[in-house]
């Protein structure tokens, strides 16, 4: 488990997790996208359950931090 804060405009590279990943949005505005799917806008309170071995990225909007 970890708590990560992204500065405005920051994002991860495409990656995957062998055990999957759960993203609990606790602040800011961000994005999440799985390979081949549309990008989702995330807000405080949103939960993303990423299945094992699903390639994805996540990050912030250009005007907001994302936690």
In short:
This protein has 67 residues and is mostly beta strands. It has strands spanning 21-24, 29-34, 40-43, 47-50, 56-60. It starts with 20 loop residues before the first strand and ends in a 7-residue tail after the last strand.
Outline the structure in words:
The strands form 2 sheets. This protein has a 3-stranded antiparallel β-sheet, with no helix packed on it. Strands 1-4 form a two-stranded antiparallel ribbon. It is mainly β. The model has no long low-confidence stretch (mean pLDDT 94). It has strands at residues 21-24, 29-34, 40-43, 47-50, 56-60. The protein contains no helices and 5 strands. It is globular. Strand 2 (29-34) and strand 3 (40-43) form a beta hairpin.
Count the strands? 5
Q: What are the segments in which pLDDT stays under 50 over at least 5 consecutive residues?
A: none
Strand/helix succession: EEEEE
What's the pLDDT, averaged over the residues?
94
**CATH fold field value:** Jelly Rolls
Please tell me what the overall shape is: globular
- Spatial sequence of strands, sheet with the most strands: 3-2-5
Q: Give me the CATH architecture, please.
A: Sandwich
> Distance between the terminal alpha carbons, to the nearest Å?
13 Å
Name of the level-1 CATH class? Mainly Beta
Question: What is the number of domains?
Answer: 1
């Amino acid at each position: 488990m970890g708590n990560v804060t992204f500065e405005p405009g920051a994002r991860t590279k495409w990656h995957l997790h062998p055990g999957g990943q759960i993203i609990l949005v606790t602040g800011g505005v961000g994005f999440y996208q799985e390979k081949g799917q549309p990008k989702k806008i995330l807000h405080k309170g949103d939960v993303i359950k990423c299945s094992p071995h699903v390639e994805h990225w996540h990050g912030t909007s250009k005007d907001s931090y994302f936690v």
